[in-house]
Amino acid sequence: MKGLVPVSLLLCAAAIFMPMLFMDTRAEGENKISEDKPPVESHGGQVHTISKDSETLIKVDHYGEIVDTTMAEHLPMAVAAEMPVTFEPEALKAQAVAARTYIVYCTEHEKGKHPEADICCDSSCCLAYKDEKELRAAWGAAYEENMKLIRSAVESTDGQVLCYGGETILAAFHSSSAGKTEDGTELWGDVPYLTSVSSPESENDVPNFVTTVEVTAENFRETIAGIAPEAKLEGDASGWVGDAELDDSGRVRSITVGGQAITGMDVRSAFSLRSTAFTLKYADGVFVFTVTGFGHGLGMSQYGANVLARKGFNYSEILEHYYSGAKLT
Predict the structure, then answer these.
(1) Is residue 183 part of a domain?
(2) Which end of the chain has fewer CB within 10 Å, C or N?
(3) Would you tell me how many other CB atoms lie within 10 Å of the CB of residue 72?
(4) Are residues 109 and 245 in the same domain?
(5) Based on the domain organization, do 138 and 40 belong to the same domain?
């Protein structure tokens, strides 16, 4: 799309594509789970049995090479890539359990993009991953100290995963929410452990918590034509956008543009917004999106987990809050 001008996203983009503060801002996205609709009912699936990380074998697509490894070897590097090491120890533990649960879920359900492997190292598909060389380059002299913190979070939760009705859940997580997490019904239908719950993070806790994206009227029309060709964007641009329908979490379920209802997810994707918690206004020839939070909003908010940990909640309490009815096993 031509002419998309991210205002406060410049620093955000640097945080994603450059290791800002050397890996301390990775909690800037989401695990890519939209293709993996979990079973709606809990019976009839594979029942999880507890195994130590060192005994849990996984196949990893490591940038095209299939690697046989163990959870104990892979998980610390995934946690290090997914959450800033500066986060509270209990938040790191919660992240370790969520990531482990996601990996175990993937071992139990084939993924179409790489059926020969359980997971891959591409954060746009599965989980982020950084090997020792990358982490040493990022952390420098702090590598040993930082890895000690990460390994402590992993080892102190050894083998623990989240289950609902005896089955491993799809442990969705995201960077930050605007007061509430998303309800699973908005994307997948009734998923009992992914309900909308409160999340305590604010602009005082999250870098780039509120961001803006500006789009000229011409390029707004071009982009909308790509996702809703039937939309009529003629005359004064101030009349192109109508009402937005919000879901219970405050995110945009749909918004009327040119007389056509477009889903918030489609708008987010088309304009590269950080979440569907946005408002849209027009002034002086420019459409301005104001976006709060980052990610799909399902499951655990990473920054929310860190705030809860600072408030004294332990990792099991954090997980129980974000994954309704799920139990640690």
Answers:
(1) no
(2) N
(3) 17
(4) no
(5) yes
